[in-house]
Amino acid sequence: QVQLVESGGGLVQAGGSLRLSCAASGGIVSSYALGWFRQAAGKEREFVAAMTAWEWRGARTYYADSVKGRSTISRDNAKNTVYLQMNSLKPEDTAVYFCAAEREIGAYNYTWAWNSWGQGTQVTVSS
Q: In 2-127, at which residue ranges do the beta strands (DSSP E only) sit?
C-alpha cells in the first residue's frame, strides 16, 4: 500500500492561492489513481479532485463543482508527487485536505473507494 504525506497547507486570505503537495512512497504515482478530499470541522469528508492513473491518452481529471475552474490536480512522476493548485480561495474552502491513492478507481468521488490516505494538511482561508 502506498504511503502519502501532504504538505503546503496554511493560512491565506480570501482570493489567494495555495498549492498542496502529496508525496508518495511505496508505490509509483503514475500507476495509481490519485485524489484530493477535504473535511471541514463538523462535516463529512468530501471529494475535491481526482485523476486517473497514467494512460497513453493522458490521465482524466475530475473536480467537484465547488472547486471546478479554481483548482487543478496534477502529478509529477519524477518526484512521485501529486499536487492540488487552488486559486481564488474562499472562506468555505477552509478544511483539512487529504490526498488518496488507489490502484483502480471507479467511484472516485466516494471516500470508501480509496484505500490509501495521507494524514491531512490544514487550509484556512480568512475573509
A: 3-7, 10-13, 18-25, 33-39, 46-51, 61-63, 71-76, 81-86, 95-102, 116-117, 121-126
